[in-house]
Amino acid sequence: MSMVGLDPINKVVKLLASAPSAEAIIDFRPSEEEQSRFDYLIKKKKTEGLTPDETREADNFLMAEHMIRMAKLYALEGKSAQAA
User: Fold this and answer.
1) Structural domain of residue 66, as residue ranges?
2) Is residue 70, in this structure, part of any structural domain at all?
3) How many Cα neighbours within 13 Å face the side chain of 59?
4) Would you say residue 18 lies in a domain?
5) How many distinct structural domains can be found in the chain?
6) Is 30 within 8 Å of 40 (Cβ atoms)?
7) Ranges in the chain, pLDDT < 70
8) Residues 76, 25: contact at Cβ < 8 Å?
């Protein structure tokens, strides 16, 4: 399965560059196709190992996940500060 058209880091960067609301950041989820691909890579890593390209792909998913989690944390902190 190829990742043509799926670049999770660019997707997160584009989201953040669009100056979204805190709610849009908090509600952000990967597409079903992205989640399915990531699940496949994790399963394959555990059972038979990944090729170098697949390892880079999985690493990109993990970096994108880290970036969006950090953005969600800051969005939640911002909402808490506004509510106080």
Assistant:
1) 51-84
2) yes
3) 7
4) no
5) 1
6) no
7) 1-6
8) no
